[in-house]
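Board notes (copied after class):
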Amino acid sequence: MIHVAASSPSVWAQPGTLGFLVVFGMGVVLFFVFRSMSRHLRKVRDAAEAEAEQAEAAEQAEAAEHAEQGGMRGSDVDRLLNNDHDRLR
């Protein structure tokens, strides 16, 4: 009924050389995948920083244009904020 394991197990029952080569191959592939991923993430980060700088420059240019056209000055803004603060009391 109960069979005793054979004294010489199958070649496939042990990891051996083939198992090592599969794991090693997966490690090599993962190395190149992660290296490529880090390169792509670096490109995305650089593009996002450049976009943020362009948005900031556009915002500053818009603020300067608004100030030239007689926009609100700092004292006007302070007065409005103080009025709102007094109304909340």
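Comment from the instructor: Residues 40-68 form one domain. The mean pLDDT is 80.
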